[in-house]
């Protein structure tokens, strides 16, 4: 591992501290090194607050002059809620800037690095780029395509079943797997579910701090920025006194026109999208327009199957318990395929034990 890689690895470690709190901004870390010595470091905590570079420069002080700054994302060059970081680096007199990746926003990509070059600062990019893109997969996808990164969470038995024929599904997996799901919720911009799940499980889809399994500081950050809970309920089957609505504000997506005021008075928002059924692609575009980077789909086989059939799922988080639910139990997802040639191929990225269960991370193969 080169020196640049080692310092960038530290910057990425810092960036990950913002995993649960930076929405809608990307997670960014910065390290400033002078003569082989760490003189300043920082990470972006939440939107509207100083960026990682500013925190690191403040810590470095005068020692930033002539130093090398390692940052996990190209320093911004535009004025937003905070001043541009490229200007801060120029003003501090750093001698070299190493970025893991360019800004994925095509309208500003490369501008920050060009500003640094024009000031006579040596610039390098692409160090540990894969890791940096992985950390901000949602932000990157939203900037490049106008869609969020969609994860589908599914809990299943060894025989690929998600619930008994009656709909009973609590609990297939154990406490460790459920804590992992809590962390998935906490890192997401949106947790999305369907009417079937809410009605059958009395689901709230909230983040529960006591179950996150994180340190006190990180837990506090996660709870300060709860994800938006979205309910896809085409025919408005879920009553407003359901536990889901009692748990806090939510966005209801439906095809029933004229319901907006009813939900607004109850402290929620209704969005009408589609005619016969909710237009899921339009929904994702709307969520991205609202700043959603990562969407976690926690729903039944019908809704997850609808997302899958449209090719809208970027990643599957499959939790598998060592039990059989039997042939009468419900399938993993409703995806009516008839020929082997229609099979949806996935690439397994990771398999690991989570308590007594297994977690499989898989992504579409093409």
From TrEMBL:
Residue stretches spanning the membrane: none
* Ligand binding (NADP(+)): 155, 169, 171, 197, 201, 300-306
Cofactor(s) named in the record = Zn(2+)
Q: Name one GO biological process term.
A: riboflavin biosynthetic process
InterPro entries in alphabetical order: APOBEC/CMP_deaminase_Zn-bd, CMP_dCMP_dom, Cytidine_deaminase-like, DHFR-like_dom_sf, Eubact_RibD, RibD_C, RibDG_C, Riboflavin_Biosynth_HTPR
Keywords (alphabetical) are:
Hydrolase, Metal-binding, Multifunctional enzyme, NADP, Oxidoreductase, Riboflavin biosynthesis, Zinc
Which residues are recorded as binding substrate?
A: 185, 205, 208, 298
**UniProt keyword Zinc present:** yes
| Domain CMP/dCMP-type deaminase residue range list | 2-124
Q: Name the catalysed reactions.
A: 5-amino-6-(5-phospho-D-ribitylamino)uracil + NADP(+) = 5-amino-6-(5-phospho-D-ribosylamino)uracil + NADPH + H(+); 2,5-diamino-6-hydroxy-4-(5-phosphoribosylamino)-pyrimidine + H2O + H(+) = 5-amino-6-(5-phospho-D-ribosylamino)uracil + NH4(+)
Q: Which residues form the active site?
A: 53 (proton donor)
PANTHER family named in the record: 2,5-DIAMINO-6-RIBOSYLAMINO-4(3H)-PYRIMIDINONE 5'-PHOSPHATE REDUCTASE, DIHYDROFOLATE REDUCTASE FAMILY PROTEIN (AFU_ORTHOLOGUE AFUA_8G06820)
Instruction: Give a short account of what the protein does.
Output: Converts 2,5-diamino-6-(ribosylamino)-4(3h)-pyrimidinone 5'-phosphate into 5-amino-6-(ribosylamino)-2,4(1h,3h)-pyrimidinedione 5'-phosphate.
Name listed for the protein in its UniProt record? Riboflavin biosynthesis protein RibD
Supply the source organism for this entry. Answer: Stutzerimonas stutzeri
């Amino acid at each position: 591992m080169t020196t640049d890689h080692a310092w960038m690895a530290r910057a990425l470690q810092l960036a990950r501290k913002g995993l649960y709190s930076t929405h809608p901004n990307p997670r960014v870390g910065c390290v400033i090194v002078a003569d082989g010595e760490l003189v300043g470091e920082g990470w972006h905590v939440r939107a509207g607050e100083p960026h990682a570079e500013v925190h690191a420069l403040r810590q470095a002080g005068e020692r930033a002059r002539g130093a090398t700054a390692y940052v996990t994302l190209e320093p911004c060059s535009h004025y937003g809620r905070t001043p541009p970081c490229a200007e801060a680096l120029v003003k501090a007199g750093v001698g070299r800037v190493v970025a893991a990746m360019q800004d994925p926003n095509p309208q500003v990509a490369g501008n920050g690095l060009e500003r640094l070059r024009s000031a006579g600062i040596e610039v390098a990019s692409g160090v540990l780029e894969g890791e940096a893109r992985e950390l901000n997969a949602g932000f990157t996808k939203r900037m490049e395509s106008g869609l969020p990164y969609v994860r589908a969470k599914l809990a299943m038995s060894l025989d690929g079943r998600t619930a008994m024929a009656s709909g009973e599904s609590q609990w297939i997996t154990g406490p460790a797997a459920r804590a992992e799901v809590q962390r998935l919720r906490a890192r997401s911009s949106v947790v999305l579910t369907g009417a079937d799940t809410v009605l059958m499980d009395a689901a709230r889809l909230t983040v529960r701090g006591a179950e996150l399994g994180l340190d006190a500081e990180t837990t506090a950050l996660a709870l300060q920025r709860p994800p938006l809970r979205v309910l896809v309920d085409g025919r408005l089957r879920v009553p407003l006194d359901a536990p889901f609505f009692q748990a806090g504000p939510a966005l209801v997506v439906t095809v029933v026109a004229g319901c907006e005021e009813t939900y607004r008075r109850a402290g929620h928002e209704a969005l009408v999208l589609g005619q016969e059924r909710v237009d899921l692609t339009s929904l994702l575009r709307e969520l991205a327009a609202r700043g959603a980077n990562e969407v976690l789909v926690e729903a039944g086989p019908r809704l997850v199957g609808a997302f899958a059939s449209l090719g809208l799922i970027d990643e599957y988080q499959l939790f598998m318990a060592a039990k059989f639910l039997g042939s009468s139990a419900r399938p993993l997802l409703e995806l009516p395929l008839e020929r082997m040639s229609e099979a949806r191929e996935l690439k397994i990225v990771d398999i690991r034990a989570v308590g007594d269960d297994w977690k499989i991370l898989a992504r579409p193969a093409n």
